[in-house]
Design brief:
By secondary structure, this protein is an all-alpha fold. The chain is built from 22 helices and no strands.
Amino acid sequence: MFVKLKEKYRSLPVQVKASFWFLICSFLQKGISVLTTPIFTRLLTPAEYGNYNVFNSWLGIVSIFVSLNLSMGVYGQGIVKFSKERKEFSSSLQGLTLVLITVWTIVYLFSKAFWNNLFSLSTTQMLAMLIMIWTSSIFGFWSSEQRVEYKYKLLVLITLIVSIAKPVIGIIFVVNANDKVTARILGIALVELAVYLWLFVFQLYKGKKFFVKKFWIYALAFNIPLIPHYLSQIVLSSVDRIMIKEMIGETSAGIYSLAYSLSLIMTLFNNALGQTINPWLYQKIRDNDIKSISTVAYFSLIIVALCNILLIALAPEVIAIFAPKSYYEAIWVIPPVAMSVFFMFAYDLFAKFEFYYAKTKLIALTTIGCAVLNIGLNYVFINLFGYIAAGYTTLVCYLLYALFHYMAMQKVCREKLDGIYPYNTKIIFSISLIFLAIGFFFLVLYNYAILRYSAILLIIIIVFLKRKKIISLIKLMIANKATLTK
């Protein structure tokens, strides 16, 4: 059997092999971090864990201004657009990013007190943040180039080394430090600097161009207008932890951060499923074969819903595994945030039509609007009901995020596809409402263990009875992806 599998693997196109290993990389990066969470929740108090996660929230926001997210949107497009000058384009963007980091580091050093006070971080933490912004950009450039060229072996190796080294070094630093938050941050920064610095040197050596005027102008012109969109995405996903820390305290921020992180475990599944169906979805839009999209989309939504319901149903047990009793209140945050993950996936199904037809204004306006709404709702309801309310404001905002993109998708279909719509509104709404109802049903059962376990068993039986249909649809999606990549 092993020999047959090995032969079948060898016969796969390089694109399919690469896609598989890139998916493994994604799981390694996030999966190992999740698996080591129980260690760090026991080494750090809830207040310390909250401070560490607030640092990560600020890291996401600050990196947009410091690096302009050059390793994201513009680079992915640029290495395809400038394929004949790919090496020069890569090295010049590495150069531009280093210049931006250097300028902002000088700005920080001349006004340390202001920035430290603004972010409530120490000088060591701020310098570590700037290093991490640079190193993550380096890895972003290099890994994107590897993906485009289907070079997965070295990417898997480096991802594995970094994914293991970060928690190992982090544990050593935290155990032997008085300032455990700074120790955790430094552990990550030093690992990234030690490994990713060589990737910077490698790309610069290959491209031999630190500065190319046309590439720098192109990159800045492309990404600067996208800053509001990138910032709004980060605000939508991170601002709640910052606001909880400032409005209630570090301990509450730590408990909320744990629940939020565990709820986002399911985004790993979202990403895996999305990588499988997205190329197929774009192909169907390109071929104007809109009506065949719905079956796979509905099935995908139901699978994502079931996975998140399982997490919601087992929230008390998950929290018990991942953290001591001091974090127990986190169970009340998991349901709304896990429900938000479902709407994150739904949004992506709808937004593909906007992306395909380059309706970037619609995308940006929706993201900005939901981010502003999230800040407003957090301010009102955290004050009224405490930090648990932030989970529900997150759910409301992502629900509206998906709804607005659904409406935008319909507008695009009217304009570009002669009014042919991929989804039946009643079916989409029915799946969403049933999912929400079951999610809140399990929330009510948290204090009734026998009823909760019975309901979980019922869901497992239903999935088992429908297993043949589920397997056949999974095979269909895999076959569609393999056909597309040949």
